[in-house]
Amino acid sequence: MNSPGSLPDLASAIRAEIASRLTRLARSLADTPAEESADGDVTRSLTDFLATWKGSATLPLADSGAEHRLLRRLFPAGLTALDAYRELPDSPEVLLDQALQQSGIIGNSPELRDIMSRALLLAATPARVLISGETGTGKDVIARFIHEHSARRAKPYVVVNCGALTPQLTLAELFGHEPHSFTGAAPRGRKGKVEAAHGGTLFLDEVADLSEVGQSALLRLLDQGEIQRIGSAQTQSVDVRIISATHRNLMEMVERGAFREDLYYRLVVVELSAPPLRRRGEDVLLLAAHFMNQLRLQYGRAWPRGFTSAARSTLLNFPWKGNVRQLKHAIEHAFIHAQDELLDEAHFPMLKKVASPAPIAAPLNVELLSTDVANVLGRPSQHIVSYLQLAPGHWFTTVNAASRLESSEATVRTRLRALADAGVLERHGDRRGRRYRVAPQYILDFAPKNSDINSLGEPD
């Protein structure tokens, strides 16, 4: 409920005042012949305008400039205030709808809207963001969305595929080089990716694959805000916003020494977790229809035009381990072989033989845990137990656990906080970079029962 004097209350008051004055004006015009009015044509037009508006629950808006000028002479302050109110930002939901439409993002599930609303808020800040999530979940789409709605939108957006960088060429690719500075160097030299992104956004895709050389170089960039081309003695300042992404558990990599901890905390000011497609409900059907429309244009075909109910059910129930990328491939495969107006389940043979997903870990009876552990967990937390069984000695974040368990971050955060308060989990870092692991005295309570899993989300 809005407090007295709030903007919605102000708008209502303005509307009421305008309505009152318009009603009095309508009565006056009804008693005044048009030829006696200084604004004869305008008066007749305004009379019709008021008659159309009468009884409407919304404020009338004059169509012509003359009508608008006349209305302003009648109550200038009110219209000026109302115009200012109209210029205020829309509600967060409306702003999100507009942003999603502008960026061409398909979907309306709560999971998608939640992460994209957070991305939209982050776009207004200079904060560095790590986007985690399974392969094919659209981490690159989220990164571009943040750039497109940031103050840097008119500046370059440069993508670096860290997984494709060899240790030997990492520095040249990131920072550029002078002519003939090394064997195979371009004769005219070359601008690096960081320099090319000056003023804009640098997206480091699969940042976990960055070599030790690359990690050290990136750390210097973040610390100093300067780059130095290979073969040059000069440094130059650069202004870039860095967004990174990975499908791996970076915190677990930090724990085993595969990723620099100091770099992790400089890269990850905020972490977003891209939801897997299987958690996005009917977004699957929206995306499938979108891909079909694209394929009809690409192939110049008018068919197929849709899906049978059986095909829709098949698409909705498939687990989509490859996420959006796998869905797009499946739709294209079916489209190419289709002869009918509608795609049926028979057009998706690759989706029929689906192995049952393996459990995260062997079931654990909560009652067999130490009494204090069991008291904190309670029976509803079997999924938390299963997660902690994976690797009790490793550090992990709330985002890691929520993504693995396909649960909300708020729910998981509440459980982890309770376990930490009870001493079952160790806690490290502030709220921005908090991480957890099982306390040494309770490791045996969570001894992994599945030998095929050796880390949090990292199978052998």
CATH homologous superfamily heading of the largest domain? P-loop containing nucleotide triphosphate hydrolases
CATH topology of the largest domain: Rossmann fold
Number of structural domains:
4
Helix content: 40-55%
Q: Would you report the number of β strands?
A: 13
Quote the beta fraction.
Answer: 5-15%
Strand order within the widest beta sheet: 2-5-8-1-9
Give the overall silhouette. globular
Task: Name the average pLDDT.
Answer: 73
Number of helices: 19
Taking pLDDT < 50 over at least 5 consecutive residues as the criterion, the unreliable ranges are 1-11, 33-42, 53-64, 75-82, 84-88, 355-372, 448-460
Compute the CA-based radius of gyration. 30 Å
Strand pairing plus helix content: what structural class?
alpha/beta
CATH architecture descriptor name of the largest domain: 3-Layer(aba) Sandwich
Name of the level-1 CATH class of the largest domain? Alpha Beta
Largest sheet: 5 strands, parallel
End-to-end distance: 54 Å
